Amino acid sequence: xxxxxxxxxxxxxxxxxxxxxxxxxxxxxxxxxxxxxxxxxxxxxxxxxxxxxxxxxxxxxxxxxxxxxxxxxxxxxxxxxxxxxxxxxxxxxxxxxxxxxxxxxxxxxxxxxxxxxxxxxxxxxxxxxxxxxxxxxxxxxxxxxxxxxxxxxxxxxxxxx
Length: 161
What we know:
Elements: E1 6-12, E2 17-26, E3 29-39, H1 46-64, E4 68-72, H2 80-99, E5 103-107, H3 109-117, H4 124-134, H5 144-160
Parallel strand pairs: 1-4, 4-5
Antiparallel strand pairs: 1-2, 2-3
Helix pairs in contact: 1-2, 3-5, 4-5
């Protein structure tokens, strides 16, 4: 698998903001293709927000045609309402990936930090800086959710080595 180019979509699930990042991996070389965020309005009804996440992610999948996707697993939330809404968003993300026939891999935040920085308790800033360095970017990707999505994609790429 090392000598085959792989296109990986990283997804940082959220309800207000879903971060995404696409990288190509060939051997030990990782190149950033695109990144960004799907934003939903707090003023819209929940079904409308879920539909937007599905539709926008479907456009990304159609345009960039990733071979596989890495999605961050849910972690403990203090706010139950936040956990439920992020779980709903994550469900529609997994549905879109499945509908497009994309292999899905899931990683915990600690696994992502460990993979990208070699330290499982790295700060958000340390992870973002390593994403910038690894992908040879001039600036840290914004918003934070997009940087997180690229880190998730890199975590998966490192599993392929």
